[in-house]
Amino acid sequence: MKLKTSLLFSLLSIIMLLLTHTNSWAQQDVPEMADAMRSNGKIFVVVLVLATIFAGIIIYLIRLDKKITNLEKNNIR
Amino acid sequence: MRQTWWKIICVALLTYTIIGGILLPVPARFIINESIRNLYFHVPMWFGMILLFTISFVYAIKYLRSGDIKDDFKSVAFIKVGVLFSILGMLTGMEWANYTWGEAWSNDPKQLATAVCMLMYFAYLILRGGMKDEEKRAKLAAVYNIFSFALMVPLLFILPRMVDSLHPGNGGNPGFNAYDLDSQMRLIFYPAVIGWFLLGLWMATLRVRIYYLQHQYENEA
After folding, report:
1. What's the rounded Cα separation, in Å, for the pair A52 and A14?
2. Which of chain B's residues have a Cβ under 8 Å away from the Cβ of A62?
3. What count of Cα atoms within 13 Å lies in the side-chain half-sphere of residue A38?
4. What is the DSSP letter of A38?
5. Is residue A53 within 8 angstroms of chain B, CB to CB?
6. How far B184 CA lies from chain A's nearest CA (Å)?
7. Rounded to two decimals, what is the model's pTM?
8. ipTM above threshold 0.90
9. Contact B88, B45 (CB under 8 A)
10. Cα–Cα distance between B122 and B83 in angstroms, integer?
């Protein structure tokens, strides 16, 4: 269940990145190399950093949620 | 994890907000430039705070009617997350204002009214912290909560609109059109508001569950 959802999320974010990236392809006549992270004023780096922090917070929340669920189960017993 | 589906929606919406909010196109404006994207992060803090305080207000009334201590736990948990959101909203607002209005604090009517509102809710937490007796504390806090909610509404929605303000949508303007929210931005702004609110809801429910556990533990001991 957990693996499935995390897979879904990574797939979703990859699709989003691809979708939003296509508009930066068509403009220049210099050869476009595979350095997406350095294009458009390096904005993708900022996205990556934000996404990392966000992922960290969410993982923390999920773990906390699970710990509390465990405590609740033990208490009922 | 209890009831996972809305947590998944929350994470999906916020992932979309962060990635789309930075990469999708926005209208070009002088002075504000790309910082217009802060709309997806700064404004949902306030929307989230108002919604969380509203839920807390409902539970305060519910507590006074039922006398069930669980309603009091819910009420205070929502206030705590709401206060966190308000602090984050204030900080991000000051950061944004520093580069667009020229200074972090310009005594804008909305800034002042929000500061007063925040102080009221800080006082709520201090009031609670100062009382030992569970029932007395819950009753007093619920009454105080209802009064501060009743004050928050004019402070945030009426007073700033009666005077000139740096904020868009104030100074006699209707609320929303002045945001220059074109259809592109709405596509991210609304999911952002829902996503951030759901995150606040998640954090608040975790708090509530800890309060329950504490309460159970203390009753057994």
Report:
1. 14
2. 1, 7
3. 4
4. G
5. no
6. 13
7. 0.81
8. no
9. yes
10. 8
